[in-house]
Design brief:
Layout: H1 10-19, E1 31-37, H2 47-51, E2 59-64, E3 75-79, E4 82-86, H3 92-100, E5 104-118, E6 121-133
Antiparallel strand pairs: 1-6, 2-3, 2-5, 3-4, 5-6
């Protein structure tokens, strides 16, 4: 008789599942990466119209823009198909590498509003969270 005992743990269940042809999903939910502000809102012509529709919890589309002449790591942010700005340059390097590697990233509006008025100019902001969907 052998002195080796079969471990009684969740890992044996997982190994048995794999040996029987089962697949393991790496994550059960999306992974939160970072919270940022949308950069460049002021350069969007119809931002007033778009801004009036934005709500907390709305999904934002992130599109890699490798051919951007100003930033080779640029990531475009869209709201319902309309451009609203970019992921800030100071934060886009790692995110762009994830996207270049085939990972799917998306944003969710966390907060938005008007921060302050300066010389009759309203400073709009959109804070959003970026998530990694890895299934």
């Amino acid at each position: 008789m052998s002195n080796i005992q079969k471990p009684d743990s969740d890992i044996t269940t997982i190994i048995g599942h794999i040996q029987k042809g089962g697949k393991i999903q790496p994550f059960l939910k999306d992974i939160f990466l970072i919270k940022l502000n949308v950069a460049g809102l002021d350069y969007i012509d119809n931002i007033d119209e778009i801004f009036s529709k934005i709500r907390v919890g709305d999904r934002l589309e992130l599109i890699r823009e490798a051919s951007n002449e100003y930033d080779k790591h640029a990531i475009l942010v869209k709201y319902h198909g309309e451009k609203i700005g970019y992921v800030p340059r100071k934060d886009n390097y790692v995110l762009s590498k994830l996207m270049d590697g085939g990972k799917h990233l998306y944003g969710v509006v966390d907060s938005f509003g008007v921060d302050e008025v300066y010389e009759n100019y309203e400073f709009r902001f959109v804070n959003f969270k970026i998530f990694l969907n890895d299934y």
